[in-house]
Amino acid sequence: STMVLIVNILGITAGAAILVMTLVNLYVPAFDIDPLLAKNLIYFFGHVFINATIYMAVIGVYEILPVYTKRPWKVNRVFLAAWTASTIMVIIVYPHHLLMDFAMPTWMLAMGQIISYTSGLPVLVVTAYGALLLVHRSGIQWNTAASLLFLSVFGWAAGVIPAIIDAVIPVNTVMHNTLWVPGHFHFYLLLGVAAMVLGFMYHLRAANHHDGLLDRAAFWAYMIGALGFVMSFLYSGNQSVPRRYADHAPQWVAYDQIASAFAILVVAAMAVFLLRFFAGLRPRTAR
């Protein structure tokens, strides 16, 4: 929470600044805005804000997963050092979104590329490795809440791989405007953040209701659907399908249809999760 507070204050300040500047320019056209400065402020705000969303959601993993493993998540110097390093890296990594902007200072582009390779490692290694140690031989109760939270760690750890690949400048010049990039952030959000939030919701529900066959089926449908959906994005990007286009080529339609089938699984599973969550908020009556 402290880390998120630090980075979000900076990010929201940058976002507010460019918003005010844009409004002034709208009503006073003589007030010029440097386009490169504006783009840097926008990307700094956006990148910090979405990363802060992920880092806030991972609190659910730290706090709830130990409930099911009956083991504490140990906070040590390595853990604190990893989060401190991540705080700094989240602030300075955003230039990796601007690798195609030739007007950017070279040192900023180099910094964005280098930090892209390292920014996810401190916290991800601590979180992913810590989660594995927490679960290993713990006799964990694999209910829907625990399953979703553990899935979210995988989604967070694996979701960074497409981003690291895209941060390589020769790759970035070819892949950045394809569906590879939506594949990366859908990986983060569907299998990372959303799974964390759903795991928290099911943990609240678990106090009053036990999981049933429908809950377990929804979990597997969600995992398979989300994986298939993001892999469809990544494969489309690998096949150079652009993420911005005026005409949709016929040879791309098959990728859309496959992704749509997986998306139906995700939507159906999400509907089950929500219905079961709201129904489970009512305490069970004694018989």
Task: Write out key terms for the chains shown.
globular, 75% helix, Cytochrome C Oxidase, Chain A, mainly alpha, 0% strand, 287 residues
Could you walk me through the main structural features you see in this protein, from its secondary elements to its overall organization?
The protein has 287 residues and is mainly α. It has one domain (58-280): Cytochrome C Oxidase, Chain A (Up-down Bundle). 75% of the residues lie in helices and 0% in strands. Helix 3 (59-69) packs across helix 7 and helix 9 (180-206) packs antiparallel against helix 10. The termini are far apart. The model has no long low-confidence stretch (mean pLDDT 88).
Helix content: over 70%
Query: What's the tally of helices?
Result: 11
Rg for CA atoms: 21 Å
Q: Report the sheet-strand fraction.
A: under 5%
Gross morphology is: globular
CATH fold call = Cytochrome C Oxidase, Chain A
